[in-house]
């Protein structure tokens, strides 16, 4: 972790150096000297060969890591002390701040000496090092595997698939429980997922649902997860008991043929808690569950439906799987024929375990394609006997040890999320940025670089893609249990993070071993024990709460170095004043119980990059009253727009001051996300503040807006880098909207909700040259007939039409030449889907949800015609309400 510590320190130093406040810092000459010396130290370290195993990480690297962290603490301490002093002693407990005028900078002098010492030792160390495993200037195949990223490679499961598909769709009318069992990493979830996604299986059932149980579970969360699969969302948990939720689920399933997957079950108690929820109507419903424990599998079924145990792969199938992961084909290509004998040895040494073959394959594909390196891997894998999860972890650790420096902290950070948790990629990337894991680059933004890091981890089979967004990019991801165990083990060894959950002991940590990141999961108890524990962790830099409930405890003032505070699941009645003490914050996320009021002093958080605030009351109003009008207009203080480091701002409603402070020259050049701005006036003055916006959400409410020219929506074209725009109109606008509406040519994703435009005006959207995703919701367009214009929508891949009064849609395959996914939802008047849509060569999926019977018939005819033409790519999903 020496590399990540140096990157974090450099990010902090550069942030200070580039700040408007820097000229007023008394220690600025020290900071400049430290920056120059650390930059040289970082260059030396990056040029040094990477150690091939954890055991080879020597004391010098550990010393560099620890020294970089201490230096960063010290620099931020000096800077924060001056921020406190310059803020007119705004916090009561700082009545007597440190007298910086008379401060002797002895510690900073010692820092300079320490850096010189590290440079000298690193130079001496380099002279004696020999890189046993050189990688530079050698062929690497990682990029050739990009097309397969996110797909489950199924090798050796043909017989399992055939048998289980027959059991799922066979003649047996009684409700059957079909357990899939086997050791960790054998492919239980992969097999279940491929069966669940199979079009034949999907078409056989009326309802399909998937939920992951895990070792720690709450019954009500499991039920809500199942209901969410069916589009039934329960947003008020306190008003629904487990019994009420059970009854809701049972009634929803009653009379319908369903398939439900219960993934990763660990105890018989789970089945006892859930079996009464599933009605048996003699219609062929199925429950498929996965578990490592044979006893659980036997307990949940009967002799007529025995558990299906997955066997380990034989040596030939292991070799085929390894080749798929390394080369993207079943055999070894001719140009790498010299590696075949060693490769077969590696495959054999994976002992038939698919996860081991996949992860080792990911390592080989992203490393030197030489006999020397492959021989090294073969020797290391051969020394391990796979008989249990711990021994399998030893093979997986080989891939971790050979991760590049910059990927290791990103991988370990995944351990901060609960087991089997679907990690939102947007959140993960923003956390990586706030933690300082990424180095700034002129050629690409931090967000783009982070996305590349994630794709690299996916390519190495260390991360699993769970959901993809409408633009095809990864929306959520997760980790295999065994890889998460490895992640937590390495994170503990590095003192990288500390997790508190229901079984944790809340004892104060060793002062010499204070964790930098504190992660809190479900059921954090109240009491002085946790408060005492937290108050002693003064050097902690990150606090994340991923659970639903957290008792609010007054520990914020202890975390003066805190840079990440994620309390999004915690509701506050008002803005916590103590947050303003955390002047090193870069990431702040929490929820208000009612309308948010931001204090003007929030600008003291001068390093803040990500600000996320949810308004629980407004969210509920929007759900139950779609045309709810907010009467509590709270302007965002103009001081927010003095926070030059902001990159992403998301709130339920943002009320920009009108006008924005003209005397404030600060331009938020790094701001990429601004959501959701209420009644946004797109004046040139406002848009100049946000020249590099990539994502913008706007929300217009209130009846009686007669003249839309006052909102300057034509100026949206000035946002030349905008890629994602969402416009929601709470009240149907009049005909003056369209002439005053214009979009930037850079748009890739557009969502219109309630805009009430005429289909004749669609050309302003269809002519956008880069548009890939279009979502039309809640009468975004009105009129009975839509006939697109030729040569428009040239790059559109995803089209959603929801809740429209459209009757006739006249279109051919040439109108949407690149379309991949079409969703039609709640369009009750639509007579048919144009038959020409089926002839689009790129089309993969048509979803029909709650539409007329004639529309359903038309899409079924499209599918039949495509099957007659041997088009087996196109899939159709129909959901009837």
From TrEMBL:
Residues 417-487 form the Disease resistance protein winged helix domain. InterPro entries: Apaf_helical (IPR042197), Disease_R_plants (IPR044974), LRR_dom_sf (IPR032675), LRR_R13L4/SHOC2-like (IPR055414), NB-ARC (IPR002182), P-loop_NTPase (IPR027417), WH-like_DNA-bd_sf (IPR036388), WHD_DRP (IPR058922). The keyword ATP-binding applies. Keywords: ATP-binding, Cytoplasm, Hypersensitive response, Leucine-rich repeat, Nucleotide-binding, Plant defense, Repeat. Gene3D superfamilies: 1.20.5.4130, Helical domain of apoptotic protease-activating factors, P-loop containing nucleotide triphosphate hydrolases, Ribonuclease Inhibitor, Winged helix-like DNA-binding domain superfamily/Winged helix DNA-binding domain. Residues 541-830 form the Disease resistance R13L4/SHOC-2-like LRR domain. GO terms for biological process: defense response to virus; plant-type hypersensitive response. SUPFAM superfamilies: L domain-like, P-loop containing nucleoside triphosphate hydrolases. It is found in: Cytoplasm. GO terms for molecular function: ADP binding; ATP binding. GO terms for cellular component: cytoplasm. Pfam families: LRR_14, NB-ARC, WHD_DRP. Residues 159-329 form the NB-ARC domain. Confers resistance to late blight (Phytophthora infestans) races carrying the avirulence gene Avr1. Resistance proteins guard the plant against pathogens that contain an appropriate avirulence protein via an indirect interaction with this avirulence protein. That triggers a defense system including the hypersensitive response, which restricts the pathogen growth. Belongs to the disease resistance NB-LRR family. This is Late blight resistance protein homolog R1B-16 isoform X1. It comes from Sesamum indicum.
């Amino acid at each position: 972790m020496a590399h990540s510590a140096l990157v974090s320190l450099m990010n902090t130093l550069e942030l200070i150096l580039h700040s408007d406040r820097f000229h007023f810092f008394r220690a600025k000459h020290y900071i400049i000297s430290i920056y120059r010396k650390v930059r040289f130290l970082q260059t030396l370290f990056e040029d040094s060969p990477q150690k091939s195993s954890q055991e080879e990480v020597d004391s010098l690297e550990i010393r560099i890591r620890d020294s970089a962290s201490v230096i960063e603490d010290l620099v931020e301490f000096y800077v924060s002390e001056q921020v406190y002093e310059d803020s007119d002693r705004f916090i009561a407990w700082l009545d007597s701040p440190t007298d910086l005028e008379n401060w002797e900078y002895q510690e900073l002098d010692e820092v300079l000496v320490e850096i010189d010492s590290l440079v000298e030792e690193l130079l001496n160390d380099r002279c004696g090092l020999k890189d046993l495993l050189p990688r530079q200037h050698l062929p690497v195949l990682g990029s050739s595997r990009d097309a397969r990223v996110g797909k489950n490679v199924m090798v050796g499961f043909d017989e399992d698939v055939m048998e289980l598909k027959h059991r799922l769709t066979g003649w047996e009318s009684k409700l059957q429980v079909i357990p899939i069992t086997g050791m960790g990493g054998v492919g239980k979830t992969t097999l279940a997922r491929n069966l669940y996604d199979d079009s034949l299986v999907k078409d056989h059932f009326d309802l399909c649902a998937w939920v992951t149980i895990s070792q720690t579970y709450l019954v009500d969360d499991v039920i809500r997860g199942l209901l969410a699969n069916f589009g039934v969302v329960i947003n008020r948990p306190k008003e629904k008991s487990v019994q009420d939720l059970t009854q809701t689920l049972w009634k929803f399933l009653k009379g319908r043929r369903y398939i439900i997957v219960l993934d990763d079950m660990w105890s018989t108690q789970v089945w006892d808690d859930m079996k009464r929820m599933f009605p048996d109507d003699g219609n062929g419903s199925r429950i498929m569950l996965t578990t490592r424990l044979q006893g659980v599998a036997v307990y949940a079924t009967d002799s007529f439906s025995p558990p299906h145990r997955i066997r380990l792969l034989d040596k030939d199938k292991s070799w085929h799987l390894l080749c798929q992961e390394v080369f993207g084909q079943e055999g070894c290509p001719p140009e790498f024929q010299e590696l075949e004998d060693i490769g077969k040895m590696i495959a054999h040494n994976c002992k038939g375990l698919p996860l081991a073959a996949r992860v080792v394959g990911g390592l080989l594909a992203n490393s030197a394609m030489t006999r020397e390196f492959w021989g090294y891997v073969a020797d290391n894998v051969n020394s391990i006997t796979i008989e249990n999860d711990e021994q399998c972890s030893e093979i997986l650790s080989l891939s971790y040890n050979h991760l590049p420096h910059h990927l290791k902290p990103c991988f370990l950070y995944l351990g901060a999320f609960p087991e089997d948790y679907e990690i939102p990629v947007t959140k993960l990337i923003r956390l990586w940025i706030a933690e300082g894991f990424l180095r700034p680059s002129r050629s690409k933004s931090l967000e783009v670089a982070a996305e590349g890091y994630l794709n690299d981890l996916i390519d190495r089979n260390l991360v699993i893609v769970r959901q993809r967004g409408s633009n095809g990019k990864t929306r959520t991801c997760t980790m295999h249990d065994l890889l998460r165990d490895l992640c937590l083990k390495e994170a503990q060894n590095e003192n990288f993070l500390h997790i508190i959950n229901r079984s944790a002991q809340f004892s104060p940590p060793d002062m010499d071993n204070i964790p930098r990141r504190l992660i809190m999961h479900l059921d954090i108890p109240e009491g002085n024990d946790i408060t005492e524990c937290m108050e002693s962790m003064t050097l902690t830099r990150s606090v994340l709460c991923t659970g639903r409930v957290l008792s609010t405890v007054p520990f914020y003032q202890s975390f003066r170095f805190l840079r990440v505070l994620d309390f999004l699941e915690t509701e506050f009645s008002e803005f916590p004043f103590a947050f303003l003490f955390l002047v090193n914050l870069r990431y702040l996320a929490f929820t208000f119980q009612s309308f948010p009021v931001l204090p003007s002093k929030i600008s003291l958080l001068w390093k803040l990059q990500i600000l996320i605030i949810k308004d629980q009351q407004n969210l509920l109003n929007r759900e139950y009253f779609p045309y709810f009008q907010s009467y509590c207009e709270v302007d965002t203080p103009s001081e927010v727009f003095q926070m030059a480091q902001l990159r992403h701002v998301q709130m339920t409603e943002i009320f920009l001051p009108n006008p924005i402070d003209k005397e404030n020259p600060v331009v938020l050049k790094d701001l990429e996300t601004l959501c959701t701005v209420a009644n946004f006036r797109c004046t040139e003055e406002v848009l100049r503040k946000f020249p590099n916006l990539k994502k913008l959400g706007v929300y217009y409410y209130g009846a009686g807006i007669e003249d839309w020219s006052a909102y300057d929506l034509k100026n949206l074209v000035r946002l030349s880098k905008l890629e994602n725009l969402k416009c929601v109109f709470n009240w149907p606008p009049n005909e003056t909207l369209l002439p005053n509406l214009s979009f930037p040519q850079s748009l890739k994703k557009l969502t219109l909700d309630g805009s009430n435009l005429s289909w004749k005006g669609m050309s302003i959207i269809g002519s956008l040259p880069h548009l890939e995703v279009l979502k039309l919701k809640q009468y975004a367009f009105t009129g009975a007939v839509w006939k697109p214009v030729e040569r428009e929508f040239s790059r559109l891949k995803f089209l959603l039409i929801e809740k429209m009064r459209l009757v006739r849609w006249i279109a051919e395959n040439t109108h949407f030449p690149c379309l991949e996914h079409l969703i039609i939802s709640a369009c009750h008047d639509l007579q048919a889907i144009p038959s020409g849509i089926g002839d689009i060569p790129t089309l993969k999926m048509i979803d029909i949800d709650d539409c007329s019977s004639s529309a359903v018939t038309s899409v079924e005819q499209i599918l039949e015609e495509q099957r007659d033409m041997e088009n087996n790519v196109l899939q159709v999903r129909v959901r009837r309400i």
